[in-house]
Design a protein that fits this description.
Length: about 325
């Protein structure tokens, strides 16, 4: 595995391209816009999404998806809601030997399917892996220490992948729990919006700690129903990602929630952003799954009501606080 191409030239895709290049791999970075590809090749930095971080000379950018499909490994880093369309466009030029590594975190809004389910539906012949963990793109690109879960069923291919993309400062930990590696990363985006609301609304650190803890209970309940292992959800791709994203203004989801908590309008917040805030689209998909399997996820439902139900932040908070007192082990906020 020496040819590792990255599909998606946002901040995370660029950071992973830099990491793969620093590992000695041949890297092609795909972006949808020809102008963006030209700018990346000319400026050797991603001014749009990851400014002031140098891109190694060995990385070439392209807007030709057929060209980018030719690789030993494809790191799929397009937003979750665009994965299906991107795979359909990749498929005619995709070798069945190419390993697909899903790096986006989310659940498909229209179908409530995990990204692994979307991939298996469209390209069932390709080996699938999931890369997920507590990783801010800028820190990864700067070479600061970080770790992630790399979930794959084939242990031998997994070990080869670790050697290909792993660095002393970027440490992938192998797992075979494909489902578990996705659930934490998807739900934490919604929880981060909730924690941002708490911060922006000045509801206090106690409230944020309670949200994180009860949010983990929601992740565990959903994971159990979908067949994930609890130890995966308590690992890097679950608890680790929750801790990072629910605690920092560097998180797009947390900062969006903080703006909502301060009284800003969702549409106006999104208009000012160039990068996708995955939790906005994942919230409704998670709630659809919860309703389908009769899972109690009140925090996720509260966030979905704020984002998609027209409910005021204050009303959503009041609804949560008005819930009956419960035995902690029984679930629910």
């Amino acid at each position: 595995m020496t040819r590792i191409n990255v599909i998606g030239a946002g901040a995370w895709g660029t950071a992973l391209a830099i990491t793969a290049s620093n590992g000695g791999n041949e890297v092609l970075l795909w972006t949808r816009q020809a102008e963006h590809a030209s700018a990346l090749n000319r400026d050797k930095t991603n001014r749009k999404y990851l400014d002031n971080i140098p891109i190694p000379d060995g990385i070439k950018a392209t807007a030709d998806l057929a060209h980018a499909a030719d690789a030993d490994v494809l790191l799929l880093v397009v937003p979750a809601q665009h994965v299906r369309d991107t795979l359909n466009r990749l498929k005619p030029n995709l070798s069945p030997e190419t390993v697909l590594v899903m790096c986006a975190k989310g659940i498909e809004q229209d179908t409530s399917r995990l990204m692994s389910e979307v991939i298996k539906e469209i390209t069932p012949e390709n080996t699938l892996a999931i890369l997920s963990g507590p990783n801010f793109a800028r820190e990864i690109a700067q070479g600061l220490p970080a770790a992630a879960t790399l979930a794959i069923k084939d242990a031998a291919i997994g070990a080869t992948l670790v050697k290909a993309i792993g660095l002393p400062t970027f440490r992938p930990y192998l797992s075979d729990d494909i489902t578990g590696a996705q659930i934490g990363g998807a739900v934490k985006n919604v929880l981060a919006i909730a924690c941002g609301v708490v911060s922006g609304g000045r509801l206090g650190e106690n409230a944020r700690a309670a949200l994180i803890t009860r949010g983990m209970a929601e992740i565990l309940r959903l994971g159990e129903k979908l067949g994930a292992r609890a130890e995966t959800l308590m690992g890097l791709s679950g608890l680790g990602d929750v801790v990072l994203t629910c605690s920092s203004t560097a998180s797009r989801n947390f900062s969006l929630g903080a703006a909502l908590g301060q009284g800003d309008i969702l549409g106006e917040i999104l208009q000012q952003r160039t990068a996708v805030t995955e939790g906005v689209y994942t919230a409704s998909a998670i709630c659809q799954l919860a309703e389908k399997f009769n899972i109690e996820m009140p925090i996720c439902f509260a966030v979905d009501e704020i984002l998609n139900g027209g409910i005021a932040v204050s009303s959503a908070v009041e609804e949560l606080l008005a819930r009956p007192f419960r035995d902690e082990k029984l679930a629910g906020f």
